[in-house]
Amino acid sequence: MTTEGPIVIALDTRHAPRSAGDFLQYVQRGLYDQGAGFYRVVRRDNDHGTPPIEVIQGGLLDENDPRALPPVAHESTRQTGLHHLDGTVSLARGAPGTGGGAAFFICVGPQPGLDAGALRNPDGQGFAALGQVVFGMDTVRRIHAGDTDPALGEAYVQGQMLKQPVRLLWAREVK
User: Which UniProt keywords apply (predicted)?
Assistant: First the structure.
């Protein structure tokens, strides 16, 4: 549950066991219940990468949060067979193997540039898709339309940071 409304995600533990399992650990340990939220929105009007993408990024709000779990091995979309479609949830990362549930994103519209073999990352490995929003894309789109501050953020993310992060109030596993 966010301050903008609910988002329900179906994790794909069968095809992306490491990535989905890591995200689930954040939920089960209550790490999204305090100090987490959505803080970055990438839109065509503020994107600095190629090809352009549209996503909302969230996770732990403090990048140095000591509660963050170690990164997980990268599961490319080539390995999992998953793709970055409207509502796909994926792990943010720098180099392959540096991603984890501390930072994740949700696609707004199909984002094939984030799949393995696409050009968004110079390494061609893409991002690790782990699940799909099954309820709450209206909430995702509301967050995506949020006000950003053109002065916030360093270089690559400048102008993509929300003026006010959208807080995650709680996250629970529903079987």
Answer: Isomerase, Rotamase
